[in-house]
Write a structure and sequence with these properties.
Elements: E1 8-12, H1 20-31, E2 37-39, E3 55-57, H2 77-82, E4 91-96, E5 110-115, H3 120-123, H4 126-132, H5 137-158, E6 163-166, H6 169-179, E7 183-185, E8 205-208, H7 217-227, E9 231-234, H8 240-246, E10 251-255, H9 259-268, E11 271-274, H10 283-289, E12 294-297, H11 302-305, E13 312-315, H12 320-328, H13 337-344, H14 349-371
Parallel strand pairs: 1-2, 1-4, 2-3, 4-5, 5-6, 6-7, 8-9, 8-11, 9-10, 11-12, 12-13
Helix pairs in contact: 7-12, 10-13
Length: 372
């Protein structure tokens, strides 16, 4: 084995829509451009950001509806990830919130897992996943048995990882609880150069993200129905239809926008609203990189990225009345946009790449010393 310049491969769960995890994968692709990307399913039409990349999908790639409804193949995902042939690589970097950590590697290969979270629907959100799934009754009845199988497989798969890197201390604690493994922490990147401070701040508050139940945009809509002040919501998802039905005229749904379109709304918002408990949360950092403070639920990764009184404020219960109280006591004049942005730039993609490159080099050197 060569101690320097190891041959690297990247592995991810699936590439079917561009969200926070995929931004991290893209940053790793830019950091290691010669590394092929292995995955279960790849949808080129939905992932133009990866045009030209060496993507190597599993046997599921051409199965019916795989690119549109990958969820139906969840029972086969462990077999799909285990089928990937990673011979010939020295370092494998898996990025995983589901099955990617389960790749099969040889004893001489170093497997570093950048873990977004242990499989949420198997370990943390299983009851909510069953309740909110849209499968027909006979299939829904089978889901608890599937999740039980996935928990057993996921725990076994975690033992195949040589080094865990978590996206936050919050996730590191979850890895220790469910996998009994220690994890280092490297925070995911925000593209600080994309965002900037505006001279003009408008009179609206802002929500950005995929609209799914756990994001709790429902309490934001309820709060602003009560407050009758302007709110703009960017993003699509299964919750949108329900949210539109209950929203009053002061709430504006803008749909899915590009990063550059969203940039304008970030920089002009009075504040960004973040009501969910996330493992990390990239959107608050995008708002802060635009110089705007954040009103966030006091939980999860937000506690690691928002400084109370400096870059934002917190509310303590995921309820509309508690959020209403926080907004009524919110004073945008107390926040210095330059300080808010300066804090966000600590999480810039350039810092992420530097930290990750140094981490891989350091661990590969230690691994090589042990093997030689």
């Amino acid at each position: 084995m060569q101690k320097s310049n190891p041959k690297i491969a990247i592995v991810c769960d699936w590439l079917t829509n561009f969200a926070g995890a995929e931004r991290c994968i893209l940053a790793l692709h830019e950091l290691f451009p010669l590394a092929p990307i292995y995955t279960t399913i790849f949808s080129p039409k939905k992932m133009p950001e990866f045009a030209g990349a060496d993507i190597r999908p599993s046997f599921l790639q051409n199965w019916p509806l795989a690119k549109k409804r990958w969820q139906i193949y969840l029972p086969l995902m462990p077999a799909a990830i285990e089928s990937l042939d990673l011979r010939g690589f020295d370092v494998i970097i898996s990025t995983s919130h589901a099955v990617a950590k389960g790749i099969i590697t040889k004893p001489e290969q170093l497997h570093i897992c950048y873990c977004f979270t242990p499989m949420r629907y198997a370990w943390v959100d299983q009851n909510a996943y069953i309740k909110e799934s849209k499968f027909i009754w006979p299939i829904k009845k089978f889901i608890p048995h599937l999740l039980s199988y996935l928990r057993v497989w996921d725990r076994a798969a975690s033992e195949r990882v040589d080094k865990f890197v978590a996206i936050s201390k919050y996730v590191a604690r979850r890895i220790e609880k469910f996998y009994e493994r220690k994890a280092d922490v490297i925070y995911p990147p925000v593209n600080g150069n994309l965002y900037s401070i505006s001279d003009q701040v408008d009179d609206y508050f802002l929500v950005v993200g995929r609209q799914v139940p756990y994001k709790r945009t429902d309490i934001v809509v309820e709060a602003f129905n009560n407050l009758r002040i302007p709110l703009k919501i960017i993003g699509e998802g299964p919750e949108i239809r329900r949210l539109k039905k209950i929203a009053k005229a002061n709430i504006d749904f803008l749909g899915r926008l590009s990063d550059r379109e969203t940039k304008k709304y970030y920089s002009h918002a009075k504040a960004f609203i973040f009501p969910q408990e996330e493992d990390y949360g990239i959107t608050p950092l995008e708002a802060m990189a635009s110089g705007r403070p954040v009103i966030a639920y006091r939980g999860g990764g937000a506690l690691e990225t928002i400084i109370e009184g400096i870059t934002g404020t917190f509310f303590d219960e995921q309820t509309a009345p508690c959020l209403v109280d926080a907004i009524r006591h919110f004073d945008p004049e107390r926040y210095n946009p330059l300080l808010v942005r300066q804090h966000a730039l600590k999480f810039d993609v350039s810092n992420f790449k530097k930290q990750f490159k140094e981490y891989v080099e350091r661990e590969w050197e230690k691994w090589s010393d042990l093997r030689n």
